[in-house]
């Protein structure tokens, strides 16, 4: 099965859009339909949760997403290594 890492921005875009046919929404639906396996590292999950808590999405939606990740995600233990992307998009470094 194909494995993929979903960037936090894709999760956020999917949750904030009202269009269930947007690319981010379709990506999450494909994952929930087991078309690929979500790979999640602890630091990525921490970043996702922190970002989710800062946006205007109801708590039940956030809780359901975290439950879905916990139940059908593939967790990779260890240290997450990041890279500075100043030349591409400085906002990715925060």
User: What is the count of helical runs?
Assistant: 4
The overall number of domains is: 1
- The CATH class turns out to be Alpha Beta
Per DSSP, what share of the residues sits in E-state strands of 2 or more residues? 5-15%
The overall average pLDDT, rounded, is 85
What's the CATH topology label?
A: Rossmann fold
Summarize the biggest pleated sheet. Answer: 3 strands, parallel
CATH superfamily: 5'-nuclease
Please compute the radius of gyration using only Cα atoms: 13 Å
Overall shape: globular
Q: Give helix and strand order, one letter per element, not per position.
A: EHHEHHE
Strand order of the largest sheet: 1-2-3
Between the first and last Cα atoms, what is the distance in angstroms? 32 Å
Which structural category fits the helices and strands?
mainly alpha
Query: Which parts are unreliable, with pLDDT below 50 for 5 consecutive residues or more?
Result: none
- CATH architecture heading: 3-Layer(aba) Sandwich
The overall strand count is 3
Helix content: 40-55%
Give a verbal description of the structure.
This protein has 94 residues and is mostly helical. It has one domain (3-93): 3-Layer(aba) Sandwich (Rossmann fold). Helix content is 48%, strand content 10%. The chain has four helices and three strands, in the order βααβααβ. It has helices spanning 8-16, 23-32, 42-53, 59-72, and strands at 3-4, 37-40, 73-75. The protein has a three-stranded parallel sheet with strand order 1-2-3. The termini are far apart.
Strand-helix topology:
Elements: E1 3-4, H1 8-16, H2 23-32, E2 37-40, H3 42-53, H4 59-72, E3 73-75
